[in-house]
């Protein structure tokens, strides 16, 4: 169980994080530690999830927390590059209805 998070800043107001590996109860705190400060500093945060092999409810909780933080300050969280399995998880939970999801990496 491991996760890798690489920051790629696009502009002063937007940051992209490339996440790879598994986002679960063990690794989600690492994602949260990296993601939440960016949500407070940026108007837009993009998560490239094309290399995420697995995500559980703890990982979804981190995404929801980031979404709420950005939305409260007029920003947006963009998720892109999700595998069919991860897209299905987002559909089942209803998150595709509220979050910005883009195809491709």
Automatic annotation (TrEMBL):
GO function terms (MF aspect): anti-sigma factor antagonist activity
Any idea which UniProt keywords this protein has?
Phosphoprotein
Q: Which PROSITE patterns match?
A: STAS (PS50801)
**Source organism, top-level taxon:** Bacteria
Query: Which InterPro entries does the entry link to?
Result: Anti-sigma_ant, STAS_dom, STAS_dom_sf
Record function comment: Positive regulator of sigma-B activity. Non-phosphorylated RsbV binds to RsbW, preventing its association with sigma-B. When phosphorylated, releases RsbW, which is then free to complex with and inactivate sigma-B.
Family recorded in the similarity comment:
Belongs to the anti-sigma-factor antagonist family.
- What is this protein called in UniProt? Anti-sigma factor antagonist
| Source organism (scientific name) | Melghirimyces profundicolus
């Amino acid at each position: 169980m491991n996760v890798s998070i690489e920051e790629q800043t696009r502009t002063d107001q937007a940051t992209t994080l490339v996440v790879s590996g598994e986002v679960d109860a063990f690794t989600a705190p690492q994602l949260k530690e990296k993601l939440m400060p960016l949500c407070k500093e940026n108007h837009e945060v993009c998560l490239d999830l094309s290399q995420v092999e697995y995500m559980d409810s703890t990982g979804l909780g981190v995404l929801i927390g980031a979404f709420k933080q950005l939305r409260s300050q007029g920003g947006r969280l963009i998720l892109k590059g999700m595998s069919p399995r991860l897209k299905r998880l987002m559909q089942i939970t209803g998150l595709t209805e509220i979050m910005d999801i883009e195809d491709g990496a």
